[in-house]
Amino acid sequence: MWVWCCRLVRRCSSSPCCSSLFLSFSFIMADTNEAENIALVQKHYDLLNARDFDGAFGCMSEDIVTHSVMEIRGSEMLKTMTTKASQTFEGFREDVQDIFACGDKVCVRGVRSGKMTSNFGQVQASGKKIATSWIVVNRIENGKIVERWLNHDDLGFLQAVGMMGGGAHGGHGGHGGHGGHGGHGEHGGHGHSHGGGHGHSHGNQGPPPEKPSHPVSPSEITEEWLNTALGKGGHLKSAKVKSFKTNGDPISATELVARLNIEYEGVAGSPPNLVARFPTTNQMARQLFRQAQTHVRAVRFYEHLAPRGRGITVPKAFFTLSEPSGDFVILHEDIEPSFTHLNPVQGASLADAQSFINKLALFHSQWWKSTTDGTKGMEWLKSAPASELTYLQLFETSWRFMSTNCSLSPALKGIGDALGKKLPDLYSYHRNFEPFTVCNNNLGPSTLLRGPSGEWAIDTWNEVSLGKGVRDVAYFLCNSLPSDIRKANESDLIRIYHQTLLNEGVSGYKFQKCMSDYKIFVVLAFAQLVCNGAGLFVLEHQGKISPSQQPKLQEFKALFARLESALLDLDCATALNDFKLK
């Protein structure tokens, strides 16, 4: 159990020297507003615990924004998540333990509790009482809660329901008042703590830990450290780093990434453009990623696999570091000046697909395990990536929202309804049944880069694992190819992949099996897209999409249309119905 303490510095009362009537009136009004704001937030929890969900979420604006790793918009979505929580956990409550106000913000520390009496996906109800501590910061405007930032013990929930290893105790992923996805499968995931009120973990603390000798975020990078890091690999020769500039916003939901433009003194062996990668600063996400060995995957991939890989260009790493705490640092070349990303909405051309599929098969064949033992010594790639754990939590709620609020064909609804029960088995089949190879697991168009001479590169490998190579094929073809091009050329493209494997010495994997696996992984690609895009589709349906969200919405709509077409063209409903682990 995490113990959270919230420290909030409240505004002081007026100074004796501030005697003007205006200032006195301002302080009185501020105190009054803060009291009203506290009462509003407390009312929300009182109504929630009384099972008056309409009243509880009536305290929020309809377009409320809840910030977590996956941003949630709208009070209706939060209400549905909470309803599901109350059905899964008997005696479900959100008990406020501390509540503070400062200006237009109210910070709440509480505990969510209940007894798990219903199944969570494929996880059987344990009958155990579980609880989760959480902190949430609420912003109030015109008598409504309009924005929220949360942090909670998502890892404890995953351990409690048996989805991750760990102690028997833990929370069910409290939503901190209905926050981010994850937790009990509806909403308690990887919460950020932003704005006023920052969570701190206290307990039996020894001496403060020594400050790491390496930077833990882009803001801590210095010329001195760059000289040390690049010098260890012999990349500086007689040169040294004179200065550098950081380009772009370094913040990401899953990691911190900074692009560095470096000026050297002398002749250096490293390029002027580098990318620096660090773990996220969100502590709940860090715990999940550490459990999933995300830092180990990323660093070992760049250290051991990337230099030997064929077919796919991987940026050269100049420095890597990984620690048991989950800290990591990766410095690699920035290839974007000469490579260009695919346009997700426009999609790939047939020539692009033919070229990439051939290169992907070359890459997969090198690590193939069928009659050979190409994956020996890669045990660190066998566990579930963090994204798999997250999607298993999110799908049922995400799909329920889409099927309820979006106009979907009966055939697609049937696939989505059946998918929730089989999703754990699909992931198990991917990772636990031979043949294995090294899979990226996230080959959407936005992750692919095309080089000036026909080369192909993939810009992120944080979710790399052993698994079925054709999953990468399905993800690429059905997300990246316009539907008419895919439908007319799908079988030929899969034959290119399969024949290239054979040409590279792979045996024991028949084309018919490759094709049946492909259909199953088209379904899995659809599940991932639903989890990633449900919130945007619902907002559009409600007419609440903002201009800044339009580009991402258009990307998701393009990918959704392609995947829907593939699911129906390939009769994936039958493939899913017939699928059994064996």
UniProtKB/TrEMBL annotation:
BP terms from Gene Ontology = polyketide metabolic process
Q: Which Pfam families match?
A: SnoaL
Q: Where is the composition biased (Basic residues)?
A: 190-201
Aminoacyl-tRNA synthetase: present as a keyword of the record? Answer: no
Q: Where is the signal peptide?
A: 1-35
Question: Which keywords belong to this entry?
Answer: Signal
Region entry Disordered, spans: 168-220
Q: Where is the composition biased (Gly residues)?
A: 168-182
Q: What is this protein called?
A: CHK kinase-like domain-containing protein
From which organism does this entry originate?
Paramoeba aestuarina
| Lineage of source species | Eukaryota, Amoebozoa, Discosea, Flabellinia, Dactylopodida
